[in-house]
Amino acid sequence: MTSRRSFVAGLLATGVAPRASWADVGHPSYLSAARLPNGQYAMVGLSTEGRALFEVPLPDRGHAAATHPTRPLAVAFARRPGTYALVVDCLTGAAVKKLQTPHSHHFCGHGCFGPEGQLLFTTENDFDQARGMVGVWDVTRDFERIAEFPTGGVGPHDIKLMPDGETLVVANGGIETHPETGRTKLNLPTMRPNLSYLAIDGSVVDQVAPPAAWHKNSLRHLSVHSDGLVACATQWEGSLQDTPPLLGTHRPGKALTFHHAENQLERGMQGYAGSVAFSADGRQVAVTGPRGNLAVVFGSLGQQIRVVKAKDICGVAPASSDFLFTTGLGEVIGDTADSSGETSHAGYQWDNHLIAIG
Fold first, then answer.
1. Closest CA relative to residue 173, chosen from 165, 181, 163, 183
2. What's the CA gap between 44 and 133, in Å, rounded?
3. Quick one: which of 262, 277, 279, 306 could link to 284 by a disulfide (CB 3.0–4.6 Å)?
4. Peptide bond preceding 81 in cis form (omega within 30 of 0)
5. Residues above pLDDT 70, as percent of the chain
6. Residue 341: its pLDDT value, please?
7. Beta-bridge partners for 331
8. Are 152 and 214 in contact (CB under 8 A)?
9. Which pTM was predicted?
10. Is the CB of residue 342 less than 8 Å from the CB of residue 49?
11. What is the DSSP string of 254-302?
12. 219-276 pLDDT, tens per residue?
């Protein structure tokens, strides 16, 4: 594998071959950050079946990644409040650029590329001003930072590009933090999460929030279906006795809708949803609960369909048949309505997110 990559990379450098694509790294279907058996950290490319295809070293624990729409480039983000984002050439395994935020900002673990891959958008915490920001980076100019604008709230986390290619959706968790106090939550009594839709120039297109009684239901992770429906996974910061639904869906211009699981499963998840994903056909959406060792799959009308049980299950992404899940114990679980399969990577610890490529 290494010699093939080196050969292809050499051709690219001399202009003999066309620009590399994801096919040149073995058609990976997913990326995930992981802790390896030797204790080091890496970003790992996975096949459709969950086989590891390549590993790219990371300097510290990773969280999520943004994948370029055509080129085998990915940006790996550190766990919040991490201070690094690495642009990785998945063909050579080299970190080709380290992104630096401005003074008083740190990354929030997520980012996304624009529709043609010419821009990268990153969620950031401007901790001196207690506000969320979107950083804008020009890929065509070696990831030069060219702009920034507010996210429309506090404590942003995930960010996605909407299907129109012109709008970003940001999950503003509502929680104020500062690096001097680590991950301590500074404003729980007054937190106000929201879902903000932003034009690429930074103007607010739409904004919705949970009901006032659920103002501690921090909006965290997002999945966007091709028809424009947004799914949001939340983390409840109130009493577990009062845990609300941990899955919300929204269509721009409509109301934010929450979906209850059966048998108070939200309490079983300890009020914590780790990841969310639509199935490829958009008829199902899965939300994971690593603290409760389960994932819940909902139907298109918000009804619970089934529960998938696995210890420390967190990553989820669409698969050819329903979903693929990852766990902190190194398992990759293929799930369908009537069967399941499992691949184990001994000694691996998959981090929170499984990122689908393409």
1. 183
2. 28
3. 279
4. yes
5. 93
6. 61
7. 344
8. no
9. 0.92
10. no
11. S--EEEPPGGGHHHHTTTB---EEE-TTSSEEEEEETTTTEEEEEETTS
12. 999 999 999 999 999 999 999 999 999 999 999 999 999 999 999 999 999 999 999 9
Coil vs helix vs strand at 42: strand
User: Tokens at residue 244, please?
Assistant: 């609300």
Amino acid at position 168, single letter? L
In the sheet that holds 217-224, the strands lie side by side as: 217-224, 230-236, 247-250, 257-259
Q: Which of 294, 287, 134, 153 is nearest to 210 (CA)?
A: 153
Alpha carbon distance 250, 159 (integer Å): 15
Report the C-alpha gap between 196 and 84 in whole angstroms.
Answer: 25
Average pLDDT of the chain?
91
Section 195-214 average pLDDT: 96
Q: Is 188 helix (H, G, I), strand (E, B) or coil?
A: helix
* d(C-alpha 74, C-alpha 120), whole Å: 10
Q: What pLDDT is stored for residue 18 in this prediction?
A: 56
DSSP tag of 139: G
Assigned token pair, 133: 């920001």
Amino acid letter, 171: A
CA distances from 203 to 3, 112, 167, 222, 233 (A): 47, 18, 10, 20, 24
- Tokens linked to 217: 């239901």
* 9 sits in which H/E element: helix 2-14
User: Do residues 137 and 99 lie in contact, with contact meaning Cβ atoms separated by under 8 Å?
Assistant: yes
Q: How far apart are CA 4 and CA 157, in angstroms?
A: 37
Dig out the tokens for 353 from the structure: 């997110």
Q: Which two tokens stand for residue 288?
A: 């994971």
The full DSSP string for 67-87 is E-SSSSEEEEEESTT---EEE
CA distance 73 to 75: 7
DSSP structure class, residue 48? T
Residue 213, phi-psi category: left (phi > 0), alpha (psi -120 to 50), beta (remainder) = alpha
